[in-house]
Amino acid sequence: MITNEGERQDDGGTSRRRRGLRGLVADVTPLRTSRDFRLVFASWTVTLFGSQASEVALLVQARQLTGSTVAVGLLGAVELVPLVVFGLYGGALADRLDRRRLIRWCEAGLGGCAALLLINASLPRPAMWPLYLIAAVMMALTALQRPSLDASVPRVVTRDQLTAAAALLSLSASASMIAGTTLGGLLATWPGPRAVYVLDAASFAVSLGFLSRLGPLPAPATADGDDAPSGGLGGLLSGLRYARGRPELIGSYLADLAAMTFAYPNALFPFMAVELHAPWAVGLMFAAPSAGALAASATSGWTGRVHRHGRAIALAAAAWGLAITGFGLAPDIGVALALLVLAGGADMLSGIFRGALWNTTIPDALRGRLAGVELLSYGLGPSAGQIRAGAVASVTTPRFSLCSGGLLCAGAVAVVCAALPGFVRYSARSASSTARWKVG
Length: 440
Prior knowledge:
Helices cover about 80% and strands about 0% of the residues. It is mainly alpha-helical. Helix 6 packs antiparallel against helix 7 (about 130-155) and helix 8 packs antiparallel against helix 13 (about 280-300). It is globular and about 55 Å long. The model is unreliable at about 5-10, about 225-230 and about 430-440 (pLDDT under 50).
């Protein structure tokens, strides 16, 4: 059969377009090839759905009970100490104990906390102090659990699938946040926070069902000549010493910490919704960043071709800050939601590149402890950010708090890049040699 040259060129162009489209779509190979990753993915999705709904309900309920920006911001303050203490300790335990067992026990504890929130909300006159107490306990349990969960992912997928796995978990998180925050905002307004806490308790029960089928994840073997990790100060210090010698790790932590500390907007969403004459849109404000994150992760196929992860993290963190500045200046609800979508997309790209950097370069024997440090970088920021946002708004306005925080974020990222040139120069092409650095 004779094929003319034009047809061959058309076929070639079609093939290139198909390859280009495949490069945009998220890679689902980890879900196809790993049963344990499917279980982790399912548990992660269900838990985040319920937890995000409860996060909105807590903020809405605090505003209903107090009407104070400071009182709402203090929900972040009470989470700071548990996050620091239990995040680092949870990282040490993740390198010492069976990670699956720790994940399960913490999940059960979080379900109990959701039940306590339900009991308080069901009282004729719900009290404010249980919200602070339970929020602190939930943060402690989350901080204990998260390092084991993060450190388990490289155990259940192959090395070449780590970036794809990070993108899939990010995609799941984004979808769960959109659904959870939207539904949480609607239910918290009517019929009330109690309905949200029922949903959250049920989500933990379903998640435990998935985790009960997860295979063993025993403590990692240590390298020759290295001491077994301890759950005390020595184990924590060995992880911190390793991180200190890696400028690209330190830079990734500091860039994300700056983004969340200076430009975390969630505590001000209920107030901005009222200022924009759209109190009905508070749930949409919580969901909008997740919509942007969902779009970024769903089209993340191209991220596997990026090897300068440090530079990509810095650009994405700065873009987040500038988008939050724009949100503070938004003239109406449509522009505000669009800017939050852009902010969420930038934050998701930062998260994908941070996950790729961390998972491909950190030895398994230290992965739990470094996951504890990572938890501080992306967990401490939102709690501190709620305090900063609420405090600044209380003496100025919510708009000024958002605008100034976004600009401070972009400036802080620039300072990190200038202080840590190794962070900006880092290339994934040298990751294999970096991963062989001596532990401890």
